[in-house]
Design brief:
Elements (H helix, E strand, L loop, with lengths): L1 H18 L4 E5 L4 H6 L19 E6 L5 E8 L9 E5 L10 E2 L1 E9 L7 H4 L3 H4 L5 E3 L7 E5 H5 L4 H16 L3 E9 L3 H10 L1 H21 L14 H18 L1
Parallel strand pairs: 2-5, 3-6, 4-9
Antiparallel strand pairs: 1-4, 2-8, 6-9, 7-8
């Protein structure tokens, strides 16, 4: 029932924004992805675009150090809550943005097939997205989202609709038959809108944090770690990493 509550809160938030002063766009994923990308001049292919976009090459920055931003990828357990391929943009499209750096958020909702047994860490990594879209690069920053879109692809018509179709296409390519349904929500509005969205979707971040803490606790028990601090600030992180490599190699030999 928690998933149902989460989706209800999100749908209600979108409806309120749509009735207010914030422009809300509703799209649907392209029926034929291959044909869709053939009609553009922007490249989309798994791991084909690993370029770093320099500041002077940047046309638009999404999120970053001084902007409100988030990236949430959430797998639902309950069925029939998502409309596969639905795209919602809360805020202006790229062609209507005059700033060079904006507040930005992404929520990707996933419904996996019952037979899927996929490590969530793989599903929640957006690195392959960054490495697979021409002129789109994600920068690493803790608990924030920060990406750059190059001037060259903006001139070719790069849009949030294009980005959404690219994300759907790449997820379906990489995870093949694991995904039953996906929805994407982008927020390109002001920081208040993003803060409000994060507040009403706090159950998502709480659940994701619980998953991470549970995984961390299992790992600590496995290696008899008695320290209270998190791995990211642990002074013995390197030694722990070496132990982990040994355990992984041992497991491979035992299989």
């Amino acid at each position: 029932m928690l998933d149902k509550k989460i989706i209800h809160n999100i749908r209600n938030f979108i409806a309120i924004q749509n009735r207010g002063n914030t422009k809300v766009h509703f799209y649907q994923e392209a029926e034929n992805a291959i044909k869709y990308f053939q009609n553009t001049t922007i490249g989309v292919e798994l791991y084909a675009y690993k370029d770093v976009i320099l500041q002077e090459e940047t046309g638009l920055e999404l999120g970053g150090m001084n902007k409100s931003s988030f990236l949430l990828i959430y797998p639902l357990r309950e069925n029939n809550l998502l409309t596969d391929g639905r795209i919602t943009l809360i805020g202006p499209e790229i062609q209507n943005i005059n700033d060079s750096n904006i507040h930005f958020g992404i929520l990707l909702l996933l419904r996996l097939k019952q037979t899927a047994n996929q490590n969530f860490r793989d599903l929640s990594s957006f690195t392959f997205i960054s490495n697979s879209i021409e002129g789109f690069s994600i920068r690493s920053i803790p608990r924030k989202f920060w990406s750059r879109i190059s001037k060259s692809v903006l001139n070719k018509g790069f849009s949030f609709l294009f980005l959404a179709n690219s994300i759907f296409y790449l997820y379906r390519m990489k995870f093949n038959n694991l995904i039953e349904a996906m929805e994407l929500i982008f927020i390109s509005s002001d920081s208040d809108c993003i803060d409000e969205f994060l507040s009403i979707s706090s159950d998502i971040t709480h659940n994701l944090n619980e998953k991470w803490l549970e995984k961390l606790d299992k790992w600590k028990k496995r290696i008899d770690c008695e320290y209270d601090w998190g791995c990211e600030i642990c002074p013995y992180q390197l030694e722990c990493y070496e132990i982990k490599k040994v355990l992984i190699e041992r497991n491979k030999r035992e299989e």
